[in-house]
Each structure stands twice: as structure tokens, then as C-alpha cells.
Design a protein that fits this description.
Number of helices: 6
Helix content: 25-40%
CATH architecture: Sandwich
Order of helices and strands: HHHHHEEEEEEEEEEH
Strand order of the largest sheet: 3-7-4-5-10-8
Distance between the termini: 15 Å
């Protein structure tokens, strides 16, 4: 399994705090148009790159894995202060309710960014959670999404879906790592379909790119129970399915999970 890339938890948290502290100044400059035109043009080009990749997924035969690689590359290329300023991080953060179980979300807009289509081909969303709260473990059908950590630190686990047995999914563990600001992950039907993220050390936030109905209308999300998973041959796990209520009660607030380095 992959682990965090050579940085300590303290370095991750310090980087996240520095990012958030720098946002206010950058945002002020961005909104007042004191930054030279090329910076705004570059950001608009970046958002259009996200949009083009999502359009290509539905219209031009881009494979699911190719989409994941393209979107993750774009997400990890953007300067966090620039992104948070453009989406108005302060306003988004104030919208969050921070539930005791799970996460809260807000719709992302790009005010003042010129040259974007009237309707994007993806749903941009902002996720926030208190320390110890989680994006509960779940798998997906007929949708893709990518997630850029823009503040805080998360324990990220992912699994490949191998088979559906009705009341359970057969999955293979693929990623178990600590991830911090600037790191991205993604899911699709073909790679790392199941994910589970827990905020560590303080609040954590992600900027998400989501496309539903990739191969025809409709999509589905199945909540899972990793702690009750049964090991089977070949390093696979038989992971029971849960209702949303059961999954939130069991995994929305981390009571006993361990960091991969703990």
C-alpha cells in the first residue's frame, strides 16, 4: 500500500495552516484585480482544462483511468492560494454546518473568472469536516470524482471494487496513507472505486470535481463496513454494505481508527 510521500504529519499541518493564512491576502488582491491579467487568464484556462477533460469523458472516448490521471494532474498543478481565493474559501467555510457525524458540503462557484462556459460539465463542490469526522467509506457506480485536499490532513484509504455479491462488495485494498494540502485522489468504476477519508489533527477541506451519469443516466453510491470485512483469498476483502444511517453512526465520527503511521 502507498504511504505519505516523505513528509511528517507536522509538516502537513504546517503547510495547511500556511496555505489558509495566505488566502486572505491573495483573495483581496485577486478580487480587487491587483494581480496582473495573466494570472486570472491562467486560472480560467485551468478551470476550462477541468471542464474539457469531463466533456471528453462523455463525448470523446476518454477512458475512466485516463480521466483520473488527467484530473489529478490538473488538481495537483494549481497553486492552492490561487484556487482558494478564486472560489472564496472564507465564504464557503462560513456556509458549513460541521455536523457531529460526517461532513458538510457547499456548492463552488467561480465569481469574477471570465471565459468559463455558462454551465460546467462537472459539479465543483467544497467539503469540510471537523477533526475525527469522515467522508464515510463508500463505493460508486456510473460516476467519477476527484478530490484535492486544500486544508488540513486526512487519512485516506481506497479500494478497487472487484465483484458485487448483493449484500457485500469484494474489494482489494490499494491506498492507505496520510495526505495533506495539494495532494489529490480520485475514483471511478475502473480504479480505486471505494474511498474513506478521515480528518486528522484539525478541520480538513477538499475541493471536488464530480461527474455523474458517465455511461447513461443515473448513478449510485453504496456505503460499506470495512471493520467487518472478511479476508478472502488473494488479499481481497468481502465488505458488507450499510445503509446511510448505519454508516454515519459507525464511521461518521472516528472513535478508534489508527493513522497508518500510528
Amino acid at each position: 500500500m502507498r504511504r505519505a510521500r516523505g513528509r511528517s504529519r507536522r509538516e502537513f499541518l504546517a503547510g495547511g495552516l500556511q496555505t489558509l493564512v495566505s488566502v486572505a491576502l491573495f483573495q483581496s488582491l485577486f478580487v480587487r484585480r491587483l494581480i496582473a491579467g495573466p494570472a486570472a487568464v491562467a486560472f480560467s484556462t485551468w478551470v476550462r482544462g477541468l471542464d474539457d477533460a469531463c466533456l471528453d469523458l462523455k463525448r470523446s472516448g476518454l477512458s475512466l483511468v485516463q480521466w483520473q490521471e488527467s484530473i489529478q494532474s490538473l488538481l495537483e498543478r494549481i497553486e492552492l492560494a490561487e484556487l482558494l481565493a478564486a472560489i472564496d474559501f472564507d465564504a464557503l467555510e462560513k456556509q458549513l454546518d460541521y455536523p457531529d457525524l460526517g461532513v458538510d458540503t457547499a456548492r463552488v462557484r467561480f465569481p469574477g473568472v471570465e471565459g468559463l462556459p455558462e454551465k460546467l460539465s462537472f459539479y465543483p463542490k467544497f467539503f469540510g469536516m471537523k477533526a475525527g469526522r469522515a467522508i464515510i467509506p463508500h463505493g460508486h457506480r456510473n460516476m467519477v470524482s476527484a478530490h484535492l485536499i486544500v486544508g488540513g490532513e486526512m487519512h485516506l484509504r481506497q479500494y478497487d471494487r472487484r465483484e458485487d455479491e448483493g449484500g457485500a462488495l469484494i474489494v482489494e485494498p490499494t491506498i492507505d496513507t496520510l495526505a495533506g494540502p495539494g495532494e489529490a485522489s480520485s475514483i471511478s468504476d475502473d480504479r480505486n472505486n471505494v474511498h474513506w477519508l478521515i480528518a486528522r489533527g484539525g478541520p480538513a477541506y477538499t475541493f471536488d470535481v464530480i461527474v455523474t451519469g458517465v455511461d447513461g443516466p443515473g448513478y449510485d453510491i453504496e456505503n460499506l463496513d470495512p471493520e467487518s470485512a472478511e479476508p478472502i483469498q488473494g488479499g481481497l476483502l468481502r465488505m458488507p454494505k450499510l445503509s446511510v444511517e448505519e454508516a454515519l453512526e459507525r464511521y461518521g465520527k472516528d472513535h478508534h481508527g489508527q493513522d497508518p503511521e500510528g
